[in-house]
Amino acid sequence: MWVDTHCHLDAGEFGARSAAVADQAAAAGVRAIVIPAIARSNFDSVAQLAHQVGNGVYALGIHPLFVPSAQPSDLAALRLAIGQAMDDPRFVGIGEIGLDFFVPQLKEPAMREKQELFLAEQLKMARDFALPVLLHVRRSQDIVLKHLRRIRVQGGIAHAFNGSFQQAEAYLGLGLHLGFGGAMTFPRALQIRRLATGLPLSGLVLETDAPDIAPAWRHPEINTPDQIPRIGHTLAELRGMTQQQVAAASTAAALAALPRLASAGLAL
Question: Which residues neighbour 227 within 8 Å (Cβ) at sequence distance 6 or greater?
């Protein structure tokens, strides 16, 4: 069995096919698909979709790419939505949240400050509700670490990790897991492949970030969660393990990173 710990199943690229895409993943052995929110506008839709598909769970948060258009009232709405979701077994954490210092607009001083404010406030929500986080850390690993050291949370995942070994060890030391997906399948992605090979397997989870970050055999087409087993096979080859061993280890890591998965009724 497999877990896709990060998949935007509600994305427009899937159109009306989200349920069919989830079914294809289930047929491939993907027992759980974590669907993170990105903005106040899709808090309800990710929750509804997680209940519509047999292998769906969801997280609630405001993505850094959507911070420019977000309002302070969105943070209040998020806190309210989290409180209401705590009794929902399909709700697993806070995300997607974080920082993005790759997009030029988001690197401007005022927008960096706003991003950090939204990250800090959402980390406080994760702390207050004792929930894990799904973190976006693009070109921002050290600044996210600074916030995590100041506002301690109950673990989670640094999604699409592409930092240094030192940064990776810092996240692991704070109780976070690291997400690896399609980027790992490209032979030229030397640093990601070194990380995937050299870090403790217990700290690694698998993800697609579908419809984005398609693996080498899919690029430049859209990504889908049924690719998780083949992505797992790549990790198995890199580490000299069997696919079955990686499936078991990555599922155990996903359950450790997102403890509420165990009570979501997905037979993991």
Answer: 182, 208, 210, 214, 215, 218
